[in-house]
Specification:
alpha/beta; Peroxisomal Thiolase, Chain A, domain 1; binds coenzyme A
């Protein structure tokens, strides 16, 4: 009997506070028109000072577990760039909050492609028979590593969490996952300091995202285009076999380029970038949950999930949706 993992529940959470482009206009030298035209972003959610990544993760997890009708899982994988503590992992903190004990729980760091990495790992655990159920998240308080006076970066990012529950099944489910990285691009999109390198900057709260926007844009479009071909070839499918694109919500122009590569009309592309901005690892499961709860997907629809981020890292998954 073949063994697949199926998505049996989704959930998400966004912090209450919304920062609009109009509010940013009052703080930095930018305009709503510039941000909207270049990125498609109109607003982003920002966590309260006393709200942490694990809080967002817990809220999203509870919704996903409720949708799945489960209160326990065998495995927890959290993709995050903004963990609450150096250690233990956000996944361990979350496991305790959810009163789940004993099974493996760990974080994955692949920035904006993090959810694709986490989903691929959990899918492999389930396919191998090592786990029967898994909770997979992207959760971020990305606002904490943003310099809110730097107009090149601060207009792009926001906070949030998204979760899926996976379960083993004999029918797909997740058809394939595809992961890539090229560390030669490390300096194109990074926080240049960390625990081992200039901890003082981290402690002083001055370790911020730096980005070569044009380079990120160019490589993202190229690599995500290649990923489309790779996922189709791996499954013996044509472009017309794909029903929905669920992309990382970084920039409407990157998303449009990938949709064009797939020959998909924009009404078949799940878009949350205008309301959420780029929530890094959280953006794909957040978008998936919004669309799933809206009832966009039908039984057997084929979804291409994809993300690109710092590293550079990029990855995707081809998923057959089951109701
Ligand atoms: N408001 C107004 N002007 C801004 C601005 C802002 N928020 N940010 C930058 N500018 C200015 C620049 O200073 C520059 O001015 P100059 O020509 O006087 O030097 C001008 O706008 C053009 O900047 P440029 O960087 O060439 O713009 P762009 O068309 O490449 O758009 C991005 C910038 C960041 C929107 C675009 O490069 C992008 O989306 N890159 C990918 C970023 C991304 O997705 N990152 C996350 C990946 S996970």
């Amino acid at each position: 009997m073949p063994r697949y993992s199926r998505i049996i529940g989704t959930g998400s959470y966004l912090p209450q506070r919304i920062v609009t482009n109009a509010e940013l206009e009052t703080r930095i030298d930018t305009t709503d028109a510039w941000i909207t035209e270049r990125t498609g972003i109109r607003q982003r959610h920002v966590a309260a000072d006393d709200e942490f990544t694990v809080d967002l993760a817990e809220a999203a997890s509870r919704r996903a577990l409720e949708a799945a009708g489960l209160d326990k899982v065998d495995l927890i994988v959290v993709a995050t760039t903004t963990p609450d503590r150096v250690f233990p992992s956000t996944a361990c903190l979350l496991q305790s909050r959810l009163d789940i004990h004993g099974g493996p729980a760990f974080d994955v760091q692949a920035v904006c492609a993090g959810f694709m990495y986490a989903l691929s790992i959990a899918d492999h655990y389930i396919k191998a028979g090592t786990a029967n159920t898994a909770l997979v998240l992207g959760a971020e308080t990305f606002s904490r590593i943003i310099d809110w006076t730097d107009r090149n970066t601060c207009v792009l990012f926001g906070d949030g969490a998204g979760a899926v529950v996976l379960k083993a099944d004999n029918t797909p489910g997740i058809l394939s996952t595809h992961l890539h990285a090229d560390g030669d691009y490390a300096n194109c999109l990074h926080v240049p300091h960390g625990v081992s390198n200039n901890l003082a900057s981290v402690l002083a709260g001055t370790a911020f995202v730096e980005m070569s926007g044009r380079e990120v844009f160019k490589v993202a479009v190229q690599k995500l285009g290649e990923l489309v071909d790779e996922a189709l070839v791996a499954n013996g499918l044509e472009r017309s076999d794909i029903d929905f694109l669920v992309p990382h919500q970084a920039n409407i122009r990157i998303i449009t380029a990938t949709a064009r590569k797939l020959g998909l009309p924009m009404e078949r592309v799940v878009l949350t970038v205008a309301e959420h901005g780029n929530t890094s690892a959280a953006s794909i499961p957040l978008a998936l949950d919004v669309a799933a709860r809206r009832g966009d997907f039908g039984n057997g629809d084929r979804l291409l999930l994809e993300g690109f981020g710092g590293g550079f890292t990029w990855g995707g998954a081809l998923v057959e949706w089951r109701e």
